[in-house]
Specification:
- This protein is α+β, with helices and mostly antiparallel strands.
- It has a domain at 37-90.
- The chain has helices at 2-26, 37-50; strands spanning 54-58, 63-67, 70-73, 86-90.
- Strands 3-2-1-4 form a four-stranded antiparallel sheet, covered by helices on one side.
- The radius of gyration is 25 Å and the shape is rod-shaped.
- It starts with a helix and ends with a strand.
- 9% of the residues are buried.
Amino acid sequence: MRQSSFRVALCLALALAGTAISRAADTPAAEAVPEPRQTENASLQDFIKANPDCLEFTDQCSHCAVVNGIAECSTAEIACVKRDNQCTKRAGK
């Protein structure tokens, strides 16, 4: 009986520890680094403003289409070398 009580107590302790760890993973860190996506979005918006007639463009990693003034991009390809954005399709052409 004593051994089964020990097992129950050990299982309960492990379950509580797992719960605490999963909650800690969900808590944002105070020192969190801002996502690079913020600067990436600013860069995309700058490109769209500088090239108002561009409908599609690429940086050799992602391919983007401009829809209502907003870039909708594919997921970046694995092991690509990112380059400056280049327009691949312009309006009226």
